[in-house]
Amino acid sequence: MSKGKLLQRKEEELQSVKTKLSHSEGQCTELKNAVEKTERELKENEKNYKADLEEKNDTIKNMKDRVVELLREKDELWKKSNMMETQQKSSPSPRDPNTCATCNKDFKLLEKKYQCRSCKATICPSCCRDAGKKERICVNCS
C-alpha cells in the first residue's frame, strides 16, 4: 500500500471517528439534560411531599389535641352525671310540705321555711345553708 492510500484511509477513519464522537457528544448532552430535568422534578416532588407531610403532621397534632380535649370534657360530664346521681339518691323523698325534710320538725303558722335549690326539699332555717343571692340549700346537698 502506498502512503497516499494509507493516509486517505486513516483520514476516512478519523472522519468516521469524529462523526461518531459528535453523535456521542449529542447523546451525552441529551442525557445530561434528561438527568438535570429528572433532578429538578425530584427536588420539586420532594418539596411538595415535605409540605404535604408537614400539613398532615399538623392535622394529626390538632386531632390529638382535640381528642384529649374531648376526653377531658367527657370526664367532666361523667363527674357531673355521677354527682347528680348521688344527689338524687341522697335527696329526700317528697314529704309533707309542713314538716322539715331533714329534721322532721313541724312548721308553725308563721315559721319561715325554705326550699332547697338542689333537691327541692322543704327545710327549716336550721337545716339550710346560704348558697348566695337568696338561694338556700339543705345540709344534705351542701
Question: Keywords for this structure?
Answer:
mainly alpha, 142 residues, single chain, 1 helix, two-stranded antiparallel sheet, 4 strands
Question: Would you mind describing this structure in some detail?
Answer:
By secondary structure, the protein is mainly alpha-helical. The protein contains one helix and four strands; from the N terminus they run αββββ. The strands form two sheets. A two-stranded antiparallel sheet has the order 1-2. The protein has a two-stranded antiparallel sheet with strand order 3-4. Strand 3 and strand 4 (135-138) form a beta hairpin. The termini are far apart. The model has no long low-confidence stretch (mean pLDDT 87).
